[in-house]
Design goal:
The chain contains 6 helices and 2 strands. With 168 residues, the protein is mostly helical. It has a two-stranded antiparallel sheet. Helix 3 runs parallel beside helix 5. It is globular.
Length: 168
């Protein structure tokens, strides 16, 4: 919630001034979702053992932060958060829609011929890109019928053991 984030910021518990932040048992703080994923994924099957595949995983994760999130998540936020709706001009929403479809096509190009973004199994790249992608249609208004590879991929992720959805 906004008050909790403001309180954490005032207490110096948000190193970059925003959530998420992982607080370790010893009190150390680690900001940024993908840095948190890398820390928690260390030593698991979600991080490829092969050096090149690890680098490919990281490239998708960097792309998610630098390209995907700034379009897919922003369009959804402009539509669903009342405090941001005034920023949702028709021109901006149309631009975000066009740019988002182009970004989703990049994922589709990979996923139309592969089950996962990197290698032969689910990696941190799939986990980080799943977040905003699986609600791109319902929250962002993107035409997900154009992306059968992405739709099959989101179904594979939601079928993974231990999966918990947003309402779970």
């Amino acid at each position: 919630s906004a008050p909790a984030i403001a309180a954490a910021k005032a207490e110096g518990r948000l190193p970059f001034g925003k959530a998420p932040v992982l607080e370790m048992d010893d009190g150390r703080l680690l900001p940024e979702s993908n840095a948190i994923l890398c820390l928690l994924g260390e030593g698991t099957g979600f991080v490829p053992g092969d050096q090149f595949l690890r680098a490919k995983m990281l490239s998708w994760m960097f792309w998610e932060q630098n390209q995907h999130e700034g379009v897919i998540a922003v369009r959804a936020a402009l539509q669903h958060y009342p405090a941001r709706r005034h920023l949702a001009t028709p021109e901006r929403m149309a631009d975000l829609l066009d740019r988002g479809h182009a970004l989703l096509q990049i994922m589709e190009d990979r996923l139309s011929g592969h089950d996962w973004l990197v290698g032969e199994g689910v990696t941190l790249a799939d986990i980080c890109l799943y977040g905003y992608t699986h609600t791109a249609g319902t929250r962002g208004g993107f035409d997900m019928a154009r992306f059968p590879g992405i739709n099959a991929w989101t179904q594979r992720i939601s079928a993974l053991p231990g999966y918990k959805g947003l309402n779970g």
